[in-house]
Design goal:
single chain; about 280 residues; alpha/beta; six-stranded mixed beta sheet; 6 strands; about 35% helix; about 20% strand
């Protein structure tokens, strides 16, 4: 068996995170707000919480008393020790996201809850498009500059592959505006979200690249309420699943229903037309 290619240069990611500015981590605050909203809909209190994240400060402040661990390849979590595990704003940098979720599941007690949140979906598609167009114009080629992000349909499959029960995946979209694309790129660096791809081009980029990308971005993606500014899409993908337990609700077997849908909705049942027969002469 061959080892799959690594997505992330962990040393570079660590350097970027170390330079992150606390006042630039507003997406973590937004993600924590959304997590708390979801926890508010769960009719249960949690007392043994663990948080997996690359930015511990905002999450430790939001969940005091929680065990906060780094999003390392091997998570520093004890088996069966927690009733709630949060994977916070780090899964998009994981080389093995399924492995991360499996480790979270193993850290849960039976019927414990796992919640994950991370940028995905259409996040930063405008920046990706502007950089690609600028680089192709200037150099005739492309190099990876924005990390590939999972789509919501793919993210939901991670839960099933990790062995979590009652899986749910959804997304919260925000549109954020900036003075220009250069301001957006500066803020990404301040968040610790600079380019840490293992396959990135390590050569100094062309001097005109980012200025050209900013020009393309401003022309193509102005903010709706202020054409002098630009818009940036941020999709925060949320995953939730439960550690399997015997007394959890389970889906019924197909064909096991005891009532007719037509009776429930007050409709009239009509047999389906058999279209399998040919229309021969």
């Amino acid at each position: 068996m061959t080892t799959p290619p690594r997505l992330t240069d962990r040393a570079a990611l660590g350097r970027h995170r170390a330079r992150a500015k606390p006042d630039a981590l507003f997406l973590h605050e937004l993600a924590a707000d959304q997590i708390e909203d979801r926890l508010g809909m769960v009719k249960r209190s949690f007392t043994d919480i663990a948080v997996v994240t690359g930015h511990p400060a905002p999450w430790a402040a939001r969940f005091p008393g929680a065990r906060v661990v780094a999003d390392a390849e091997v998570l520093d979590l004890d088996p069966g020790a927690h009733d709630l595990v949060l994977h916070a704003m780090a899964l998009h940098w994981a080389d093995d996201p399924v492995g991360q979720l499996v480790q979270c599941r193993r850290a849960l007690i039976p019927d414990g809850l796992m919640l994950a949140v991370f940028p995905g979906g259409r996040s930063l598609w405008e920046l990706r498009a502007a950089l690609a167009e600028a680089e192709s114009r200037l150099t005739g080629g492309l190099s990876p500059r924005v990390a590939p992000l999972p789509e919501i349909r793919d993210a939901g499959q991670l839960l099933q592959r990790a062995g979590l029960a009652l899986p749910v995946a959804d997304v919260d979209r925000s549109i954020i505006t900036y003075a220009d694309a250069l301001a957006l790129m500066r803020e990404l660096r301040a968040m610790g979200e600079g380019n840490a791809l293992e396959s990135r081009d390590r050569r100094t980029p062309p001097r005109a690249l980012f200025a050209e990308a900013a020009r393309i971005y401003g022309a193509a993606y102005p903010a709706a309420d202020d054409p002098a500014r630009i818009r940036a899409t941020c999709d925060l993908v949320h995953l939730s699943g439960w550690s399997p337990a015997e007394d959890q609700p389970k889906p019924l077997r197909p064909g096991s229903a005891t009532a007719r849908l037509a009776d429930a909705i007050g409709g009239t049942e009509r047999p389906l037309r058999d279209d399998s027969r040919g229309t021969g002469d």
